[in-house]
Structure formats: structure tokens, C-alpha cells
Amino acid sequence: MILLLGGSGYVGSSFRSLFEVRHIPYRSVARAEVDYYDPARLVALIEQTRTTFLINAAGYTGKPNVDACEIHKAECLLGNAVLPGVIRSACEATGTPWGHVSSGCIYSGRTADGTAFREDDPPNFSFRRPPCSFYSGTKAIGEEVLDGASGCYIWRLRIPFDHCNSPRNYLTKVLSYQCLLEAENSISHLGDFVTACFACWERRVPFGTYNLTNPGSVNTRQVVDLLRQYLQPQREFRFFASEEEFMQKAAKAPRSNCVLDTTKSEAAGVAMRPVHQAIQEALTRWQP
Ligand SMILES: NC(=O)c1ccc[n+]([C@@H]2O[C@H](COP(=O)([O-])OP(=O)(O)OC[C@H]3O[C@@H](n4cnc5c(N)ncnc54)[C@H](OP(=O)(O)O)[C@@H]3O)[C@@H](O)[C@H]2O)c1
Question: Which atom of ligand 1 is nearest the CA belonging to 8?
Fold first, then answer.
């Protein structure tokens, strides 16, 4: 039995869809149902449900966007930094293998050599390497808490998108923002991401950290060109003149824009499609 935490969320819902489509038995548990922040209750839940693999898709992302984490700091720390430690203890106590949904937002830009960030590069957008957003700081602590954990995958997601129009979908965000920030990023097709996460477990890929983004990178102008090509040919998109203007007019916390190296996941056999192919497929199937 797969035990899913955070199944009501944007990422958790995609795991649920994967399990439904593939008829994989799972149990999705909400906080209101079982207080999984209580280690003893989590251990009991794992034992009662005979969990063979646990997925943590729970966390605090901030609504309507990451700026909310600058205000709701306690909730953010609890969801992103404390909870992974509680799950680690429960999984190690019961010998349960598991996977944690982390984020590539612990990085900014590229490495000093101009290459993409590998899994073992230390975060450069974190409380230890400021400046960072409060959200990114807590996600980096969440990974630190899992350092040396046995039987644990850390799956790094970045800027999820797919073909379903939704306020959480990156493509919808680009369509709806008044003004855009030009930046280069690695991004993750949500369906590809959850498939790759679960493939890690199914194929018994070695435990550890994996950058699970679609190989390659995109900049905002390339995404805009694709949106014009597939959805809104007449649409004009406005851009901020600089990151400074973006920070002054549209944001409280600095944003992580970064490029991740995916060679480890490719070598492990859980590669995702190239990023441009994944965006084009999402736009071809777009559901308004
Ligand atoms: N969406 C992104 O852009 C993105 C990008 C990279 C990484 N991630 C990571 O993916 C994970 C899931 O994100 P999501 O986008 O699916 O978030 P979401 O839609 O806001 O869902 C959050 C889920 O976590 C649960 N949860 C447990 N403790 C929580 C807490 N203290 N505060 C808020 N929610 C809590 C919620 O359960 P209830 O139903 O009980 O509230 C809900 O099921 C997070 O760890 C996030 O950092 C997300």
C-alpha cells in the first residue's frame, strides 16, 4: 500500500491521478483525518495501513504565491522543514522507504562555471547562502533535515505545468500576469514529474536526491513565443525592464530562477521528456 501525504494539494492530486489510472492501491490521508505531524500517530498510521512506500507531497507553498511565506513563517517552517524530519523518524522507525517532494528553488542562476546545478551542489539560495525567499530557505532546511536519511528519495520539482488551465499551472500564470520577468529556468511537466518519482521506487533506483525537471531550460520569452504560436497569436506580452523593477512593483521576496542538471535521473533510467517537447505537447492538448 502506498501512503500519500498532501494528496489534496496540486502535486498530491497528480500522484492520485497516476495511481487511479494505473490501478495502484494507495491511501491518501489528510491532516484533518490524522495529525501526521505527531510522530507516534504517523508510525501507527504506517503500521495500520501496512504501508510499503510513503510519498510526502505535503508542504507549505503560500497562497496566492510564495510571498505569503514571508508572512506565514511558522506554517511555512512547519510544513517544509519540520514535517520532513517527523516523516524521516517515522519511516526509519518502521523501516519504510519513502520519497519527499522537494524543490529546485534552493538554487539561483547557474553554477560559478556556468553549468547547471547537480544534485550535490550546495544550495546558493537559502538561509545559509542569502539572499533567499523564506519559502526557499525552508525547503533547503527540509533537505538538510533529510541528510543521511536511509531509504529516502528527495525529488526536486520546479515550476510545474501541464495541459490543464489552472492558477497553479506555470503556463496559466504566464498567460495571466500583467507583466513578466525574463528569466531562464528548468521546469517540470507535472505528469512527467510524478511518473518519474514513482518510477524511482518501482525500478528500485538507488535512494538519494534527483533533479526531476524536463531536460534543458527555457526562458520566459521562449514560453511566450510558444503561447502565441499555440494559443493566442494576437496576444501582446509585457516584460519588466529589469529584476529590480519586478521586485519594486510585483514581489516581496526574491524569486529563484535556476537551471538544474538532469544527467543523474537520466542515467538512473527515470528521464523526463525534453522541456520544449513537453511544453508543446501541453499546449497542443490545452484544456481552457
Ligand atoms: N507547486 C509548486 O510550484 C511547487 C514547486 C516545487 C516544489 N513544490 C513542493 O511540492 C509540495 C506540494 O506543493 P503543492 O503545490 O501541491 O501545494 P498545495 O497545493 O498547497 O498543497 C499542499 C498540501 O500539503 C498539505 N499540508 C500539510 N501540511 C501543510 C502545511 N503546514 N501547510 C500547508 N499545507 C500543508 C495540504 O493539506 P491540507 O489539505 O490538509 O491543507 C495539501 O495537501 C510542497 O512541498 C512544495 O514545496 C511545489
Answer: 43
